[in-house]
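REQUEST
  id: r-88c1
  op: predict_structure
  target: Acylamino-acid-releasing enzyme
  payload:
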Amino acid sequence: MFSHTSQHTKLHKTILRGEEQPALQKCKDCCSLYHCPFCGPEMFKPTIKSKCLKHLLGHRRRAIRHKEFFIFKCHLKCRTAPHFHCVSCTSTFMRKDGFLKHLAMCESKKPKVTVVELKSEESLPAPDLHLTASEAGSTEEMPVSEGHRSLISEGAQKIRRRKANFEQHLCPKRAVSEETVSQGPSHSETADQNFTGEGGVIEKQVRTEDPTISPVDEGDPSMVDLSVVDHNVTETTISNSAEADVAIQTLVNEMFSGHTSVESTIPQRSRSDAQDLCPFCGLMLHRKNLQVHLRRKHPDEVSNQEKPASAQGKNPKQQRLPLRQQQKITMESEIRDVFRHCIRFPVPISASVIADELVDSVSETRCITVLTRWSQCDLERGVKLRFSQRWTLLCKHNTIEHVLPSGTSSHIEKELLSCHSPSGTVHAVIREEAGHQYLEVWGQNGLEKTLDLTALNKHGKVYEDAQFSCLAWSPCEKKLLYVAEKKRVEPSAHSSANEDGGLVLLEEQDKNIYVEDWGEGLMGKSCPVLCVADLNKEAVIIYAGVPPHVSPGQALWAPNGRGVVFVGQWNEPFRLGLKFCSNRRSALYYLDMKGNCECLSAEGVSVSSPRMSPDSCWIVYLQGQVFGPHHQCLRMMLYDMKNRSTSVLVDVVRRAEKGQFAGIYESLPSQCWSADNERIFFSSACENNKAVFSVDRTTERVTQVCRLDALRLDDFGSVQLLAIQKDLMVMSCSSPNQPPCLKVGFLSSVDQAEDMQLCNVGGADVYEGFDWQPMLITPPSQEENHHFSGLNFGAILLKPYNPPERRKTPLVVNIHGGPHAHFAADWNATAAALTKLGFAVLMVNYRGSTGFGQDGIESLLGNIGNQDVKDVHRAVLWTLQNETTLDPDRVAVMGGSHGGFLACHLVGQYPDFYRACAARNPVINAATLLGTSDIVDWRYFSVGLQYDFDRLPTSQSLISMLEKSPIIHAAQIRAPVLLMLGGRDRRVSAHQGLELYRALKSRSTPVRLLWYSDEGHSLSKVNTQSDCFLNIVLWFKEHLN
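RESPONSE
  id: r-88c1
  status: 200
  body:
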């Protein structure tokens, strides 16, 4: 059945350690496809990577988990039939049952002695002792050596002491006095001591090298039998007497339930509904099954946690606290490890082509250098790190022939902004160190120039955010354009105004005047100015001529460097929150060197993302409406620099057919034009996915460039375009079970997308062990919005492959904030970690989410707290109906901001359905939030009311806000609620969560509040994310069990 050799060798290729993934590489010998590492080509034909990955998932489902190893079934030519390889030796087995028995025997060569039964001399004559050796279910008797006889004597002595202690523990009135035993007694002496008087059935685990004492069960004595097997831990046979059952049950109750033992020898039955958690895996079991579970599943852990029996007999409460602490420590360690594994994957944030050189003019071979920047979380230090990678591509006729290794990554330290010059010869960096900001210029010979921007004292802090910041080289590569805060001079009797207009002079009486800023995430940013650093003169100039009622940002150089084009945000009559809001009044302006400013776009609209074509003849930008939904479907506008005319290139999509282009919902990439100035490329949400599209400047036709099936990207749910330069596209691809990876490829024509070749150049090549599926759900007729009928919404379900034995999988409903946001089928560290910990995760894109057309967004206005709540609950019911492996009795809900608003609504409107809730910075009372939020306009539009800057609240409007708030359902909430609040949140005040906290505390509803005093609305710091995740999982495990 198997072949065996005693020599230990290295691990076979079908044995992987921990989370190690099988090596999957493109074949370079017989084909250009992928081979299965566990099957021969005659067993599994080479195929594309996506199909090979799915095939490997089947291997993983059939693999054997042994300690830290995954043992896959081998279909290679080691043997003629499929088989398993042993971890400890070179044995191979075809049958799984025989292999499992062999694994148990093959872990250690040292024999282990086990006391099975004890019987008095009076009831049975003393026979010759034998040792039993077992292998693969067969037994063989062997004579006992003198060394083993001494071990028997020592084991019998310890058994006697354990029996006496348990008798004293169970029946104090019948306590057995201890006898002093000298070291190394003879076999006969030991037998006389142990076989005298009444005894009990003893369960004992003895190691030859470490004879530690373990808990025992009391019963009647019987005969002695010893076994020698190749196990680290062996168990004994137990006689099923009534007193033994009482001992086991009493010990389990004391260890895990907190009950004290009853001084009675009469067996008492425990309640059938009494349950306790396993201290090692967190599984909830009946007390009568807990002891059996510990023996079968955790023998090693139990032996490591045991204390001397005398300590247990004297004070059982002393062991209760360490066990509970050990349970918590073990569970927390597992949760942290899983979250660390999922959050450690780097995420690409930008890419650019910095060099393009002709290597061979005959073969037209080019050498292209791509610079990519990544973000990565370091959980040990609690920081987000940034690093860069360079990739060298050898290309011929718009085809990538080779990708040269990138080498090691370079850590980016204290860098705010960076930009390569158009020629690629120099690189500009704005860096902050020791309270000073520096402008550095790097060239081929190292650092060429440095300007201390703080010492020049022309402006305040440089902006690095996504709403205002920029860093752009002039066409002559002698000037740099950026945005900074206007300089404010402290009050002084001798201060004077600066001639360039870059200073704001403060009088003595103005030192306490209130200064507005742009709200959440932009605190301290109030009056931005356009700055130009002249590298030849080593001076900074503040651009004059910007209208005082606008705040400039997102600037770029006009053709020939004769002026700048920028987006001006309206700051009158007062500033509203700008982050996550694409509905703020703004316009596109042109400012020349003489200070003349001209508006290029329409008035009364919202403008963002201006992008200049390579020939400097065209500008595309995004345009939306002012007020209304805070995030919306946008138009793409085209401005002709020569004719000074504007036209609509891509209009707002009201509704889209299934799988078709659904509109533009996010900013354009910094490099989005094709080399021929004819096409613009961008990424956008489309139902539950994110895809890359292009629009033809002449025909205005929108085409999905990277169809997942056409480019063999069907395993990816999200494709994000980072940059396109000279028709070389750099994209980030991911899915819920695949972390981001970087792919590059040339695209010469939209009609030839199927011929595009993509190369993987970076990122994680990992396939996590769980499944996901997107869903489109149609609400029933009674839940239709009659003003926007026929709308669908989406959801994404993540499920673990191997649910816990004999139990259905608990479901966690994850709800996004916004509400005008989107869950794409991309990598989500929180959802992935929850799934790896045994939860199924349902991420819902309710009506009002982006990616489904403008009608879906507008359908939510005036219907918050009703339509969105019903959509989420409908998605949960639909999922439970179609997925029978999910447990309808263990459903939890979580979300942040508007997602927390919906989570609290759900536990209030469906109090008997949801078992636990976790909410981050939730909206609890929209009426009281009106005066504290930085987006006061959304407070009105969300309940269906109009807003203007001079509007005052009325009793009717406040009543409408209150009626749509979760606080009115607080009295019905029975599910335990975990609240996580940021003390510096400007979007949703932390007092919102405190309001619900007090309401639940006063009604004795289980509630816990976590307060992060230095966090804002997003709770985005690494340490905060880790702490929130740990507490959420512990909260769900406690209350879902």
